[in-house]
Amino acid sequence: MYRALLPNKRKRLIALTLMAIAFLSVSAATLYVLSGDDLQVIINSWLSGKPKAMNKLIVTVPNAPQVSYCYVAVRRLPTPMEPTKDGFSQLLYFGRVGRGGIIVVRHMFNAIPVAYGTDKSEVYVKYYEPKYYIISVFCFGSNGKPLHNYSYSKLVEITPSKLVNVNYVSLPLRREPSVIQPDRLSPGTGGGEYDYQSSCNIVITKTGDDLEGPYEKGYCDTWLAFTYVNSVPGLKTAIKFLDYPPAGVYFTAFTKHDDFLNEGKWEVSGKKIARSIISGTTPYASDGDMELILVKVRYKYEYHEIDGPDGGYLMDTEQLYPSEIRGINAVPAGWYVEPSTHPSYATLLRGSYDISFGLGGSEETDEVTGVSTSLTVTLEDAVSFTLTVNVYKAVRSDQQYSPPHLVVDDYSNEGYWWWFKNDDPLTYTVFLERG
Length: 435
Fold this sequence. Notes:
Blueprint: H1 7-24, H2 28-32, H3 36-47, E1 52-60, E2 69-76, E3 90-98, E4 102-110, E5 113-119, E6 122-128, E7 131-140, E8 146-158, E9 164-170, E10 194-209, E11 214-230, E12 236-241, E13 248-259, E14 267-276, E15 280-281, E16 285-286, E17 289-307, E18 313-335, E19 347-349, E20 353-356, E21 368-379, E22 383-392, E23 405-409, E24 416-420, E25 430-434
Parallel strand pairs: 1-9, 10-21, 14-18
Antiparallel strand pairs: 1-4, 2-3, 2-7, 5-6, 7-8, 10-11, 11-17, 12-15, 12-16, 12-23, 13-14, 13-18, 17-18, 19-24, 20-23, 21-22, 24-25
């Protein structure tokens, strides 16, 4: 006689079925580096109805002849689905490693999909929430002196698509050069680069000690250049941030390393998305005007001191990374010179329209758009330094983030041609021509 499965048995059957499907996509190489304990934790999480996945970072430290050993720290940055207790980074690993050594860092997280794909009408999980890690390395020679050229940090973004995601991180032998500053925009061009100047004062809000040593944490809010909008007679244009999912824009993250012999310089550690906590539309550009779009971004600051076994100071690292977008605005930036003709990939429209900068879906790139900000940062009204903050040609378009939109108000109803700069929506730039 047929008998329905009890609720607990049904849950276990569903969980086991999902687990079987998920692990079919895990490669043999991945299973090789997955320990039995890791596997058991993941299985138990699915059976308990709280499914988890894992990022496994396999980090190789420098293998240069002059390196004797290195200290390595791996930190996780907070994300919307996985915040940290204080809103700043969480230390996942800290230890001393010999030259060319390998460390393995495991990070379990809730397996909640944020993007789906379709294959022959079947829906599958495209990826879970992307995670950010700051990997810092501080190397020493055989004489015990710090090797300043082998001390740096790297910000890594990992987009997990499986229950077990193995990520090999190879740290470079030397620091990577910072991004070159773009040229300034000449009014009347309607395109190209724009270098904006801004400032912010870091306020320390939290101090304490952790496994490495003393730390200080704080933030600053600043207006950064994002893009520009063009207009022609009969059209008004503006940038819009949606309410849900909120907008996200990638900006530059920075790092600085000092030790007891050397004072370092601020360098680029990578890029990171800033999540908008506001929505709305900027003031419109009209009648051939060009406007620079500004976004108010909160940058978080962290100072971590690393002490030796005897408790004495060895070195320190400072991190500065974008966190939230807290405002949008537009300021005059010259005038737009309408092209004499439009390219073959231009589109003819009539009436008002919203143009999304994420038409190509979610993409990740380290290329910059050319719009930047010369940012003068002051630490507690004392130390001051200037950085170049770039906007990256990267976008998230999923259940967590939406790309910014260009709003076109065709109040003349005469029609217009529009196209992305270089036929690339990730430039965040639209050119216009009257129809």
